Amino acid sequence: MNARHTLDGDDRLERLLHSVSQAASERVSAMVPKERLEALVLGGGYGRGEGGVLHSDQGDQPYNDIEYFLFLNGSPRVNERRYGKALQTLGHDLSAMCGIEVEFKITSSLAFRSSPVSMFYYDLYTGHKTVLGTEGVFAGCEHHAEAHAIPLHEVTRLLFNRASGLHFASLRLMAKEFGPEDADFCARNLAKAWLAMGDAVLAAAGHYHWSCRERHERLQILAGEQPQGLVPDLLSRHREGVRFKLRPAKTLLEREDLETRLAETTELMWRTWRLVEEKRLGVELPDALAYATLDHDLCPQHSWVKNMVLSFQHLGGGALGCPGH
Predict the structure, then answer these.
(1) DSSP 125-172
(2) Rounded to two decimals, what is the model's pTM?
(3) Which of 157, 86, 142 is nearest to 112 (CA)?
(4) Which end of the chain is more exposed for a tag (fewer CB within 10 A), N or C?
């Protein structure tokens, strides 16, 4: 991987991001015994060398969250209880240092190696920076490099997350008060949706790639092969999504312009959702009502027993539909 965290951020920004990783490495080394520590890995856009760069009068600034993955021997759940609070404090301290949120997530090489292929694990395996430890932590994890093996329910999950962002943007736009922060929120979620829709089409076709720039090139090729239909309609919006991811900026759009873009994006989101879900579920979906009333198990990959146990753990007995609740 490229030693840089961004494509074109200035030297000051690159030094800042490097110093955050250096501080994280030192604090983790002091916190975790050597025999338990496997590696500290920087993921996300900055780990892939495509982190967002926000230009300001004070120079380039980081924009995306900084995501570290701490690989520890033993059970991740036990290690979470042991180190979770200390890592939260560390994340808070580093966030104050760089001005954006810094997160730590605990895992293990065994958990990573034994996990099924997902979009999240593919991105982490193929695009990261190891800031502490060695690349040996990824030994035996080669199956995560197979983009064509990303299951379709992962693509649906991506679209669901971005469609949720559009919903929250619509609530901001309907509110009586609407200021610059609301406009930025809407513009940011529109850009995320534009990127995700093109990515979803690629992933459904087995052509996903860790680099957003490479994904756009692949989408251009796909659009040339399918000159009519959804893909060409997504192409220009995906280009804007890539641009925003790499070089985010404060929006200058007014509420009315954002409303127009939201309406257009919502229509494109449904068309993308329908393409993915028809392929995933093996059904025809003429409209949204047909999908909403579909007599079909929409999540066959999930065990209802496991879902019940997780709900009970997070929500207590009321999650099981006890009388009187």
Answers:
(1) HHS-EEEEE-GGGGTT-GGGG-GGG--HHHHHHHHHHHHHHHHHHHHH
(2) 0.88
(3) 142
(4) C
